[in-house]
Amino acid sequence: MKFTQLCYLPVWYLKNVIFRKHGPLQTVLFVTDYCNLKCKHCFEMGHQCKEMKSIDKIREELIYAHSMGSRFLDLEGGEPTIYRYTDENGRTYDINDVIALAKECGFNSVTITTNAQMPFEWVKADFVWVSLDGFREYHDAVRGEGAFAKLEENIRRYHELAKDEKGRPRRLGANIAVNNINKDSVRDTLMYVKDSPYLDSIAVNFHTPYPGTEELMLSMEDRCRIIDEVIELKKAGCPVQNSVSGLKIMKRRGFKKNCWISNFIITDGTRFRACPGETLGICDDCGFCMAGEMYAVMHLKPDTLIAGMKLRL
Ligand SMILES: C[S@@+](CC[C@H](N)C(=O)[O-])C[C@H]1O[C@@H](n2cnc3c(N)ncnc32)[C@H](O)[C@@H]1O
Questions:
Q1: Which of 129, 195, 244, 290 could lock onto 113 through a cystine, CB 3.0 to 4.6 A?
Q2: How far is the CA of 203 from the centre of ligand 1 (A)?
Q3: Nearest CA owner, ligand 1 atom 26
Q4: Residue closest to 200 by CA, chosen among 167, 236, 175
């Protein structure tokens, strides 16, 4: 991120937090609902395999989000790396065209989350997260037989082939959603990331009970126990992206959310000013630790501000 882009952050904070003109800093844009997996914890809309958003629609949505003040983009799906759209002139667009378009529209940084089931070293996002829902058989129990082996092969490829502007291997983060299937694998997963030559950090999230997936949600007792374990592992040197302040807030059910910091535009084009979980009435049980991080940012917790900067720079 350039210095001028960095200067936008205090300006945004002043306008949106101090003067309460609530508008997004980040946009979560769903580009497709096509997916090559059918994970047990995923919402139904995540793998319907019906819609590739047109590039014109994506351009319109990016211009809209940017005009609202958003400068960080996270591309989601479905599986964003399988995004392909062919226009009336026969030109086919992929996720790199969406990333280039976002930069043209003025976004400072574009991130993506992938299931890493296919090679993805060609993806030009500023930062890539791979979903790692447990160590070996735990990951496969959530995501399907053989998913962990494919992930391992493709993160190794990414490390070997994807280079930054100085020719160094690009950073790669993991993301775990802890649920009732993989809760006993958290320590092994964090240790796996710590020892991995290919992954440099892991973001910890908890299951969010989308309709049809409620039984995978952890009890509050389990969640608190796992948060304590994650904090202990972080203090012992595991590269956990979450800040300690953000994690501690996730132990409190029903804390005040500031989810207007991210706006969401889903695959059918519906625009939400905040997380769509609000319309489902599941905010009190939300497991996305970004909610805790946002709360801590609003309260200017130094460790959270540093964790955020580390990720974005
Ligand atoms: C919906 S997936 C889409 C991107 C890509 N296909 C993938 O699997 O990473 C994005 C992230 O949301 C997480 N996720 C899906 N359902 C969830 C739930 N109910 N609670 C918490 N995280 C969830 C996934 O584990 C993944 O890391």
A1: 129
A2: 12
A3: 131
A4: 175
User: Does the beta carbon of 79 sit less than 6 angstroms from any atom of ligand 1?
Assistant: yes
Residue whose Cα lies nearest atom 3 of ligand 1: it is: 77
41 close to ligand 1 (CB < 6 Angstrom) = yes
Entry field: residues in the chain: 313
pLDDT digits (tens, 9 = 90+) for 222-281: 999 999 999 999 999 999 999 999 999 999 998 999 889 999 999 999 999 999 888 899
| Band (6; pLDDT cuts 50, 70, 90) | confident
